[in-house]
Amino acid sequence: MRKFTFGLLIVLAVLLVACPSPATPTPEPQAETGGQAEEGMPKEEKVIRIGAAVSETGKYAREGQDTRQGYILWQEWVNNEYGGIKVGDERYKVELIIYDDESNPDTVTRLTEKLITEDKVQFLLGPYSSGLTKAASAISEKYKIIMVEGNGASDSLFERGFKYLFAVLTPASRYTESGLKALADAGAKSVVIAYKDSPFPKSVAQGAEKWAKEYGMEVLAVESYPADIKDATALMTKFKDLNPDVFVGAGHFVDGVLLARNAEEVDFAPKAFMLTVGPSNPEFVEELGKTSNYIIGPTQWERTMTWQGQYFGTPEEYAKRYEERWNEPPTYQAAESTATALALQIAIEMAGSLDSDAVRQALLEMDVMTFYGPIKFDETGKNVAKAMGAIQIQDGNIVVIAPEEAAVADLIYPMVPWNER
Amino acid sequence: MSFLQALLNGILVGGFYGFMILGFSIIWGVMGIINLAHGEYVMMGAYFAWAMFRQFGIDPLISAVLVFPVMFVVGYVLQWLVINRVVERPHLISLLLSFGISISIANIYKLIYTADYRSVTVSYAGSFQLAGLTFPTVKTIIFFAGLLLMAALHLFLQRTRLGKSIRAAAQNKEAAKIVGIDINRVYAITAGICVGLTAMAGAMIAPIQPIFPFMGPLFTVRAFAITALGGLGRIPGALLGGLLLGIVETLLTIYVPGTGAKVGTAVSFLILVLVLVTRPQGLLKGLRPVEEGA
Amino acid sequence: MSRFTPPSASENPVRRYDIWLWVILVLLAALYPFTQPTTARLLIAIQMFMLITLASNWNLIGGMTGYVDFGHLTFFGIGAYTVGILMTRSGEVIFAPQLSFWQAWPFSGLTAMLFALTLGAATLRLKGPYFSIAMLATLLAMREIVRLFTPLTGGGGGLDLPPELNRIQEYYIALGLMALSVGLMWWIRNSEFGLSLLAIREDEIGAEMRGINTTLHKTTAFALSAFLTGLVGGFWAWQNTYIDPDVVFFEPRNLEMIMAAVLGGLGTVWGPPLGAAVLYWLREFFWNRFLFAHLLGLGLMLIFVVLFLPGGLVGLLQKGRVTSVLDLWRLQPAHEEET
Questions:
Q1: Which residue of A271, A401, B63, C164 is most buried, as measured by CB atoms within 10 A?
Q2: Mutate which of C19, C247, C257, C279 to test chain A, going by most A C-beta atoms within 10 A?
Q3: How far apart are CA C303 and CA B100, in angstroms?
Q4: Residues A50-103 pLDDT 10s
């Protein structure tokens, strides 16, 4: 009996210990909190606290790392070079609090809640992936905290009527727009689409279907596949039989590798092979070698694009800065993360205030050009100014082929079949 | 498309599944342990092939041979030091233990290799034509290598002294002990062989699958299903279960429009539940009496 | 096997006081919101209460009855989708007005229970690992089935629930559900019903021969466990404001529920809650200090518990001593039965 009493007391102790004081915040180690100006300093430095929950482990570990590096790059720039965000006549340093959300939907809500109510952040930057952004944005909406995000592309994010959620990236439904247009112009007549059944790829696929029809192509088949697919040869065999001009595969990086490999295996060689997420990443080329050649992919941003922004200069200048800091070339996920933070900064400066509603108004009125491209939000919070680009891997290089104003090379169409490389 | 081509794809995918899960089936059949770290051995084999390819330009097929002794040692030591300690316990315990091993291995690999996706590009990655059908080269190689290894393993179990001890240990442990078989050693050797074989399969799939630290669980789940479907510890059972799953998934994917791949996955698991309920010993009678596995 | 067997009721014939400690604990927890905690802390507590409830429910079928359910999250998912569909889609799909959370919530438990009754009729006839596999397969099939019924479930795109997010209200719901579930487990454990379940676990054929209707008993336990798990699922969907197959059928949650029960001690009343609380706390601990390797830490911990604490934390407390690591290491495990 006494043992059980003891056991219960332990339960009690653990419960009580766990409730009030878990998880002392561990701010990102590299994150310099430029605003440590307390008693000793001659002049009091003002600080803006901005928070984000970004995956460091779990399913989105890889993409989360790009997001995090993009955020930190902006923070270091704004604190050390730019001298802090201008609010009216004053300069505010940025304190950026980033936690690891483990790619876990429960963790992301808990951390968002914590950032708002305990760390008292004034603004939030988004996590990686549409699913996590959905859970997190419901909380920021409730507290009327502005969340600017650059890594949740699913269109359904902006159909919930949220007022405080803004996204700098082009939404998923427009991912394939410029790529399909270029292909239609080159003479492609028919399309097949395969997508992983989760929010972002689904939006991409719905968009692809719409654009294909709009540009006068016939959609021969739309197939969805489960998230835990291990082999897609059956799917590819099915498509091979339909003999389409264009294949569009919507998924994440890992699906891109699998789909390309399996298409090669069953010799499904359409005239154009388009994949989301993977091809614009240099690692995709490195790992897939010659198989990756001629694959087309949508891209939010590439270093060869010709934008010119007030901050960070051109995409190439941004890329150099990024390489210097992180010793690897930036992916577009990194660039859009930096742009996310930059958009927030510009809005705060326009508003001249830290008040959520004033900044929201500024975001709605914003119409700027950045290194990432134009940013202009509509009522729902989507960036409507920026079109999606398209790249093609040509001879191991990632080159922009569409839209025309950003293109640096011509589309190679049709592609060389797998077995003739 | 010809039905034959669809069937061929199904058979090759099935052979790939069968080879992949062979080690899992035998460990389960011989020791009654459901090894949830199985997929991690596949992953280790795949990373081995990738690293050899990157470092020395060694072809994955050669790596597949090289990886066997390395992973034999890993399997032997893990079994000797850790898993042998729970063989006698209820199956939940060994499940949880191997699950712990699974998470640990995956996360150690994440620390070493990062979470990036890897792949190996070989010159023969495409396909060849034969009798009007398209054969994916790598899967065809895997299929025949798998058949060959299954035959070799079958001979080993039937003909050699060690193989006979392994079967004896599976069928009646107490009797095996009485006739002087060192059960711990037999188990460790069995584990070594199985882990080695699994890693071989892993090395061979390096050219056709994305390689990343968390790729394992998907293979483990398939292994679970196929083994239960085919019958524990039986080599033909692994092949039969693999083929059944491969063919069902492939045909459904091809012939159901729009959602075929999802229907395929759902149906293959429903078939598993159905087989379990109506014929719990699997389609072929297993190495080990069913009640004892509990 | 004897060493693994958790303490059975007969070892502690008289224990009626522990439930009062539980009541006091719950009452104390009910006062917590009055200390003006931040909502983040309330949310931490809510999530921990949910894990405790899940672990405790799983223990009813997995620990007490001995049917190790590897797919219990199926019922969580069914509950979540019931609430999700009734709150958002019922107007279009089922010809009924859209329901509020309070109207929809009870259905989440009921549908889960109905599903468990149907499924259990087939799978509960299976023994040992076969039951575990059948349940896991059900879970994996269910995740794809949910995707197939896109008009109803939103498929892979998921469903957006109206975000209400009143953390104080949620706190009391989670606390109430937890208090109820754990209290129920206590009652079952001390009742004739619970003893029958234990008898089934130890020796099902023997129990049958002693005149226990084993089918009825285990089906009841399964359905009850599914009912409560479905309620947790429904509640989870509401407080997360968004569901899709990947976040609902989230494997780590399935695993944590089982791990918590094992860590605490299978088949005991207080083990799973204790295990869940410790597990949750530990995860926070690892998350904080070993950001890069927190899952590795959990994996190693699992290995450790299985090897050295087979009776779980409650087993440890009851024995009053830690089984020496070295003692265990010296064992020749495969011969252990003979000695």
A1: B63
A2: C247
A3: 5
A4: 999 998 877 787 788 899 999 999 999 999 999 899 998 889 999 999 988 888
CATH number, position A196: 3.40.50.2300
Contact B210 A232 (CB under 8 A): no
- What does the block give as tokens for C92? 């279009």
For A114-146, the pLDDT digits (tens) are 999 999 999 999 999 888 999 899 999 999 999
Between these two residues, A49 and B175, which has the higher pLDDT value?
A49
One-letter amino acid of A56:
E
> Domain for residue A21, yes or no?
no
Q: Residues A222-237: what's their mean pLDDT? A: 87
Identify all chain A residues contacting C37, using CB atoms and an 8 Å cutoff: 19-20
Residues B253, A234: C-beta atoms closer than 8 Å = yes
Whether residue A233 and residue B9 make contact (CB cut-off 8 A), yes or no, is: yes
Q: Which amino acid is at B166?
A: I
Residue A91 lies in a domain: yes
Q: Are A171 and A153 in contact (CB under 8 A)?
A: yes
Dist. CA A57–CA A103, nearest whole Å: 7
The domain C9-335 is placed in CATH, from the list 1.10.10, 1.25.10, 1.10.3470, 2.60.120, at 1.10.3470
Residue in chain C lying closest to A134 (CA): C242
Q: Which residue, B107, B101, B136, B103, is CA-closest to B122? A: B136
Tell me how far apart the alpha carbons of residues B228 and C99 are, in angstroms, rounded to a whole number: 42
Contact A224 B259 (CB under 8 A): yes
| Structural domains of chain B, count | 1
Question: What six digits make up the tokens of A23?
Answer: 């998880």
Q: Quote the domain boundaries for residue A401.
A: 174-300+388-420
Stretch (H or E) spanning A94: strand A90-100
- Of C181, C43, C216, give the one whose Cα is nearest residue A142: C43
Q: Which of residues 108-147 of A touch B (CB under 8 A)?
A: none
Distance (Å, whole) CA B131 – CA B124: 19
Q: Give me the phi and psi of B285, to 5 degrees please.
A: -65, 135
> Is residue A178 within 8 Å of C135, Cβ to Cβ?
no
Say whether residue A163 is in contact with chain C using an 8 A CB cutoff. no
Chain B CB contacts of A59 below 8 Å: 214
**Domain around B43:** 3-293
Residues A66/A337, Cβ–Cβ less than 8 Å: yes
Give CA–CA dist C303/C287, Å, rounded. Answer: 19
Contact state of B100 with C299 under an 8 Å Cβ cutoff: yes
Are A111 and A249 members of one domain?
no
Identify residue B57 by its one-letter amino acid code: G
| Residue A376: how many other CB atoms lie within 10 Å | 16
**What percentage of chain C exceeds 90 in pLDDT?**
32
Tokens matching residue A236: 């590819």
* Closest listed residue to residue A145, CA positions, set A52, A260, A248, A219: A52
pLDDT digits (tens, 9 = 90+) for C293-318: 667 777 887 788 778 777 777 777 76
The conformation of residue A30, written as its DSSP 8-state character, comes to T
DSSP assignment of A289-316: GGGGTTEEEEES--TT-----SSS-SHH
Within a domain: residue A10? no
- pLDDT, position B38: 93
The enclosing H or E element of A418 equals none
8-state DSSP, C70: T
List Cβ neighbours of A288 (8 Å cut-off, separation of 6 or more): A257, A260, A261, B119, B121
For residue C227, give how far its alpha carbon lies from the nearest alpha carbon of chain B (Å). Answer: 22
In chain C, the largest separation of any two C-alpha atoms, in whole Å, equals 68
Distances, alpha carbon C263 to alpha carbons A281, B152, C73, C255, C308, in Å = 42, 42, 19, 12, 11
* CATH number of the domain within which B9 lies: 1.10.3470
Tokens of residue C102, six digits = 């309070």
